[in-house]
Amino acid sequence: MVEAIRAGQRLLTPTELEQALREAGFARYHIHHPFHRLMNAGDLTLGQMQAWALNRYCYQATIPKKDALILARSEDPEFRREWRKRIIDHDGEENGEKDGGIRRWLKLAEGLGLDRDMVTARRKALPATRYAVGAYLDLVTQGSLLTAVASSLTELFSPVAIGERVPAMLARYDYITEETLSYFTPRLHQAPRDAEHALALVTRWADTPEKQAEAVEALLAKCDLLWAMLDALHHAYVSPGQIPPGAFRPKDHRT
To answer: Residues in domain Thiaminase-2/PQQC (predicted)?
Structure first.
């Protein structure tokens, strides 16, 4: 699709660009990954769920840092005012009136039986997870601001993933409760709000075929990062079950 946009040398309309982003992004979104499907089917062990929560924390904890880097790149106060909402969503408020996504993810990890300090230290995360998270920071700092903003458009598909994941977990894992999954409830309105803002910016800023291709490439690069994290989880904890030295080893792991 990226090559077609470049080769066509025709500027897509905002509606056409949005459709291209939605189609390309959803086709590569990690909702289709085998690990994600096993989770929704109720086929993961507690240890595999713990490994997912631990490694995903590395990504969650990096989101406000990523957004701060994006915010710092803009000279537009209006952009910064809107974008900083994302940081508050994840870091929360100092006075405790608003619980942040990072704290709620730690609640999920603890609900799965993980030690909070072990999770926050991130030392037992998979090496591939740490590399993927670092690559995400590189993506939003080394490319254009258009690339940085477009990479966030995976949030277009987040409500679909949450809509599948939450009811599936509650129905198929008897140790998971609604309180354990409290991270996901605010995301059902935060993610669409953020995606709408980012999509409006991307369709306005991408005013040449080259920039439109750049926007699609950025979204696909983000999808690749999320997919790679699940690839690593599947390889380490499902098949063939080869956990790297120093990484988290669940009590129920059998290889």
So the answer is: 23-231
